[in-house]
Amino acid sequence: MNWYSLLQSVRTAGILLYVILAIIVFGTATIVVSFLNHNGIWPHIVARYWARSILFVSRTRVHVTGLSHIDLQKPYIFMPNHTSNFDIPVLLSHLPVQFRWLAKAELFKFPLFGYAMKRAGYISIDRSNRKSAFESLEQAATAIRNGKSVMIFPEGTRSRDYTIHDFKKGGFVLAIKSGVPIVPVIIHGTWRIMSKNGLMIRPGNVILEILEPIQTSDYTLAQKDQLIDRLRMVMMRVFEDGKKAGL
Hints:
Elements: H1 3-36, H2 41-57, E1 60-65, E2 77-80, H3 87-94, E3 99-104, H4 113-119, E4 123-125, H5 130-145, E5 149-151, H6 170-178, E6 182-188, H7 190-193, E7 204-210, H8 224-244
Parallel strand pairs: 1-7, 2-5, 2-6, 3-4, 3-5
Antiparallel strand pairs: 6-7
């Protein structure tokens, strides 16, 4: 191992240690404020500061484009690509809207972190249980009706090969039922900071690109595959253009 690799390993270990401590501190704060604020706004703000602190410690710089495409006062279903654990703090820290995660059930099993997510109003979805998954979509629909946006990774999990994979259908059922526009979001650069294939964390620049919303009111449930194809085509085009440009 050369000196650069050794330095990166030590740096990564320090960041991971900080992340653990930050989960304890900010996770506890999230739980505490959740008892003082029942609409989830304060817990989301605490989570935003948690995310910003992680980006600061890891020397990750984020530039946001396309924010003018959305009305910050209206609810949307945001659907970003997913290539890295750093996608989550990037979205939390730099998307200036109140949103609730629709996240896989496994994340809610982590001690403290999972309970903090639950207290913040984030929604667990168990894809192995059809009834539970349906109930999760109903919770998400309630959040939307209350004016909150929902964040869904349409691929369901992180990509291992820096490509956009097939989309799960649940989020599109939710979008069509609620009539809320889907906002495609492309995250450029987090793969190089920390990919799913390793634990090494490197400093870097990220571009959070917000694309034009796709209206869902013209689609029926029978047409959800058409909506999926449309969104995936848009996201793949922008994502691949970014890769060619070195983003």
